[in-house]
Amino acid sequence: MKILGIESSCDETAAAVVVDGRDVHSNIISTQIPIHTLYGGVVPEIASRAHIERVNQVIEKALTDAGETLESIDAIAVTYGPGLVGSLLVGVSAAKAIAWAKDLPLVGVHHIEGHISANYIENKDLEPPFLCLVVSGGHTHLVRVVDYGKYEILGRTVDDAAGEAFDKVARAIGLGYPGGPKIEAEAKNGDEEAIDFPVAKVRGSEYDFSFSGLKSAVLNYLNSERMKSGSSLEPAAAFDGERIYGIRRADIAASFQKAVVSALVGHAMAAVEEYRVDRIAIAGGVASNGAFRGAMEEECRRRGIGFYRPSPILCTDNAAMIGAAGYYDYLAGRRDGWDLNAVPGLALGER
Ligand code: KG4
Ligand code: ZN
Questions:
Q1: Are 110 and 81 in contact (CB under 8 A)?
Q2: Distance from the CA of 206 to the center of ligand 2, in angstroms?
Q3: CB of 19 closer than 8 Å to CB of 116
Q4: Core vs surface per residue 44-76: b (16+ CB within 10 A) or e
Q5: pLDDT in tens, 177-234
Q6: Ligand nearest to the CA of residue 316, numbered in listed order
Q7: Which residues of the chain carry a pLDDT beneath 70?
Q8: What is the pLDDT, as a whole number, of residue 203?
Q9: What would the 3-class secondary structure string for 273-284 be?
Q10: What is the DSSP string of 246-297?
Q11: Which three-class secondary structure state does DSSP give residue 67?
Q12: Cα–ligand 2 centroid distance for 82 (angstroms)
């Protein structure tokens, strides 16, 4: 079954052709990162406009690369939430127009379900049940994948998402947007033991995450170093090519990254032990972080459990993952009508 997947929930306009949920015949991603970099983050209004300009070409390229036409496609799967409403609407409208014109089944897909399903693409043997830690710019969810399309959320962030923390700290130390890859690159030259940044535990919930305290810890640290140095400059402006207020920026990046990674891995391993699972997967933009992947791999190897992660290109927003998730939703009988709408706050498992 050939599915055309469409994704436009944030700042990537993407389309892909996926066969039987696992074989990717094309995967086109048009990123808006260079545009949003000018503003230091995603500007929703600009994102929607850029999606409108690109969506048709991206879909056409996905079809051409796969050697398909709209006549040979069997169904359309599209992200309808969560995400930026104006961005989501572009993909949803394009999908509805095609499905209507070609009389094709329309399947609305949950964006996080897409991220989780990215793991099916390169791991043909992976089937539920398994645990999945979804870490992106908008979400941090520790999920039990009970069956295809059936999820039990064990924990989530109570404030910032992990990727959001990367982005905010990167901005504060003058690394710019998007923060994750820039912090990772900077951290490679740093000492992760240099500064002890604490990660708050969420009271009463073992698997919930909190990253806004960590971001504040970094900002407070910078502030106190600034006082000591007597500088009148903001941290980003005080960067001299190597240091901020005399502290190596690479050390700040590495110490921050270590704190995020240890919180993520710590929660994941606690769940592995409590639920006695033999497989865990990671997903989402932050899952392309080498330090995180390495730490997960190591801990899983020590415990003798299977570790799954998508290639970096399938970690960040893409439509192949939507085609994969859409296939299993289709098999489960999901069909949407012309009233399918963008749902910016869509919860996982909500129908
Ligand atoms: O999954 P994604 O593309 O979009 C959302 O659904 O949010 O994730 C984007 C997030 C951004 O916050 C970005 O900084 C982060 O993923 N990210 C990373 C890395 N690459 C992307 N964070 C840490 N290390 C990376 N290498
Ligand atoms: Zn995403």
A1: yes
A2: 24
A3: no
A4: eebbbbbbbebbeebbeebbeebebeeeebebb
A5: 889 999 999 999 999 999 999 888 888 889 999 999 999 999 999 999 999 999 999 9
A6: 1
A7: 350-351
A8: 83
A9: HHHCCCEEEEEC
A10: TEEHHHHHHHHHHHHHHHHHHHHHHHHHHHT-SEEEEESGGGG-HHHHHHHH
A11: coil
A12: 9
**What pairing do the DSSP bridges indicate for beta strands 306-308 and 279-283?**
parallel
Could you tell me the two tokens for 233? 């400059």
Pocket test for ligand 1, best of 32, 157, 168, 286 (most atoms within 8 A of CB): 286
Q: Which of 316, 318, 321, 346 to mutate to test the pocket of ligand 1 (most atoms within 8 A of CB)?
A: 316
pLDDT at res. 349: 77
Rounded distance from Cα 140 to ligand 2 centre (Å): 10
Q: Which residues line ligand 1 (CB under 6 A)?
A: 10, 136-138, 163-164, 166-167, 178-181, 184, 284-286, 288-289, 316-317
Q: Residue of the nearest CA to atom 19 in ligand 1?
A: 180
Cα 317 to averaged position of ligand 1 atoms, centre (Å): 9
Name the burial class of residue 350, with classes exposed (0-12), middle (13-18) and buried (19+) by CB atoms within 10 angstroms of its CB. exposed
Ligand nearest the Cα atom of residue 11: 1
Tokens of 263: 């919180």
**Cβ–Cβ under 8 Å, residues 264 and 256:** no
Q: Tokens 């996926």 sit at which residue?
A: 18
Centre of ligand 2 to C-alpha 315, Å, is 8
Q: What is the pLDDT of residue 201?
A: 84
Query: What residues have their beta carbon closer than 5 A to ion ligand 2?
Result: 136, 317
DSSP single-letter state for residue 346 = P
Can you tell me the distance from the alpha carbon of 226 to that of 14, in angstroms, rounded to the nearest whole number? 43
Measured CA to CA, the distance from residue 287 to residue 36 in angstroms comes to: 22
pLDDT at residue number 121? 98
Q: For ligand 1, what atom is nearest to the CA of residue 260?
A: 23
Q: How many CB atoms lie within 10 A of CB 196?
A: 10
